UniProtKB/TrEMBL annotation:
Protein's UniProt name: Pyridoxal phosphate-dependent decarboxylase family protein
Species this protein is from: Actinomadura fibrosa
Alphabetically ordered keywords of this record: Decarboxylase, Lyase, Pyridoxal phosphate
Cofactor: pyridoxal 5'-phosphate
SUPFAM superfamilies: PLP-dependent transferases
Domain of life: Bacteria
């Protein structure tokens, strides 16, 4: 079978998967041992027809697939895939461009240049800000914080790219107690360990206490990076970015914003107030595979100081063909990767298909669904919603930890929805995240029904258990 027939069959398989989402269980049905048995075995001895390979792969993995593109997948703030973005991503694989250098993929480099500028404008960030297409927010933090490290040490007369960290002035990083762990991990990669972190308590709703942050920053004159958050992972709460920017500007600290999903509020006129002051930061990290709904993986790092960004990331070698007529933007100057996927095509397609108004509507509709779910779940006896639903996150629990976990497991095992558990303030909770373009009112209604049925089933089982064995009547 030729390439055309293979790709047509593959497209049919992919379309079948997407069309099955509304009726199939959201969670996987196969366990790890089953999947190992389906996929494992010795290295094949000889070649096999590509069509057979793809057909067998699709059959083998199908029970282990999670219906992440479904409108009833509410776990981990994971978006779906807009049709235009999925189609562009298929073409990205077929085109097989490498956007490390302009010379390797001129169109891939230019589409990143255009899409990055569109995103910068959409989110209300400074026109001077540089940007980099990266796998996700983890690498975006790494990129931004590398630029921050360069900047704060350069201000003290230390060239970290030339001299490394040995003997350098110690960097302090001031951040909130409810920060995302990917920030710590990025700092660790950059040689900034836990001993350099100054952790500031939160206000109980996930936002950092600005008064305590101000005290921490002003307490020491060491080179300082402040990490703020737009959208706490459990509550969706926002740090007061405007007040924190005041602190950073007054003290000369670098302000980095973790905006993985929350920074998308800037695209909505109705929600933009949540990120007031974000444009005053020095760097921003976000995911486009979340609320923009492009396929995994796709993130963006932006920096208000292009010189620091470029100094931290750029590389040269005799064999690299860089520059050329028209002064093209060299993607390698801004990212930590040489070889990588041309992520700009899918982002470009998503933005073209939605437009400014469509992105705003998608964000606002997701938040409305979250509020609708919160209103509905509070009507279930024993349920308590733990957060003000300011964005797309609903945090709730049922009585004690055991009941909460049991209700969650029952809903997930029903296949009606996939939702993640969490721990908040030392107790178990359930976190529902809405950011999929396909989520509908019906999806919210089905998920609420699944929770009502799960709670009823747990109560019946507990009632039977507590009732104990019935005594036989003696006549």
């Amino acid at each position: 079978m030729g390439t055309r027939e293979l790709l047509e069959r593959t497209a049919e398989t992919a379309i079948g998967w997407l069309e099955s989402l509304d009726g199939r269980p959201v969670g996987a049905s196969a366990g790890v041992e089953d999947l190992r048995a389906r996929l494992g075995g010795p290295v094949p001895a000889g070649p096999l027809d590509p069509l057979a390979v793809v057909d067998e792969l699709a059959r083998a993995v199908e029970p282990g697939l999670v219906a992440i593109p479904s409108g009833r997948y509410f776990g981990f703030v994971i978006g779906g895939g807009l049709p235009a973005a999925v189609a562009a991503d298929w073409l990205t694989s077929a085109w097989d461009q490498c956007p490390g250098l302009y010379a390797c993929g001129p169109a891939a480099a230019v589409v990143e240049e255009v899409a990055g500028a569109w995103l910068r404008d959409l989110l209300g960030l400074p026109e001077r800000a540089s940007f980099a297409f990266v796998p996700g927010c983890q690498t975006a933090h790494l990129t931004c914080l590398a630029a921050a490290r360069h900047h704060v040490l350069r201000a003290r007369g230390w060239d970290v790219e030339e001299r490394g960290l040995a003997g350098a002035p110690l960097i302090r990083v001031v951040l909130g107690a409810k920060r995302h762990v990917s920030v710590d991990r990025a700092l660790r990669f950059l040689g900034i360990g836990r001993a350099s972190l100054v952790v500031v308590p939160d206000d109980g709703a996930g936002a950092v206490r600005v008064d305590r942050l101000r005290e921490a920053v002003e307490k020491d004159s060491a080179p300082t990076i402040v990490c703020a958050q737009a959208g706490e992972i459990n509550t969706g709460g926002f740090d007061d970015l405007d007040d924190i920017a005041d602190v950073a500007e007054r003290t000369g600290a670098w302000l980095h914003v973790d905006g993985a999903f929350g920074l998308w509020a800037a695209a909505s006129p109705a929600l933009r107030h949540l990120v007031r002051g974000a444009g005053r930061a020095d760097s921003w990290a976000l995911d486009t595979h979340k609320w923009l709904n492009v396929p995994y993986d796709s993130g963006l790092a932006l920096c208000a100081h292009p010189d620091a960004h470029r100094a931290a990331m750029s590389v040269t070698a005799d064999y690299l063909v860089q520059g050329g007529p028209g002064d093209p933007r060299e993607p390698m100057d801004w990212t930590p990767a040489f070889s990588r996927r041309a992520r700009g095509f899918a982002v470009y397609a998503a933005l073209r298909s939605l437009g400014r108004d469509g992105v705003a509507e998608l964000v606002e509709r997701s938040c409305a669904h979250a509020r609708r779910f919160a209103d509905g779940v509070t009507e279930i006896p024993g349920c308590r919603v733990l957060n003000d639903v300011v964005l797309n996150q609903v945090l709730f629990r049922f009585g004690d930890d055991r009941t909460t976990d049991l209700v969650l497991r029952t809903v997930v095992e029903s296949g009606e929805a996939w939702i993640s558990g969490t721990t908040f303030d030392g107790r178990r909770a359930i976190r529902l995240s809405v950011c999929n373009w396909q989520t509908s009112e019906n999806d919210i209604a089905r998920t609420l029904r699944a929770f009502r049925e799960a709670v009823g089933g747990v109560r019946r089982r507990d009632g039977q258990k507590n009732a104990g064995p019935r005594r036989r009547r003696v006549s």
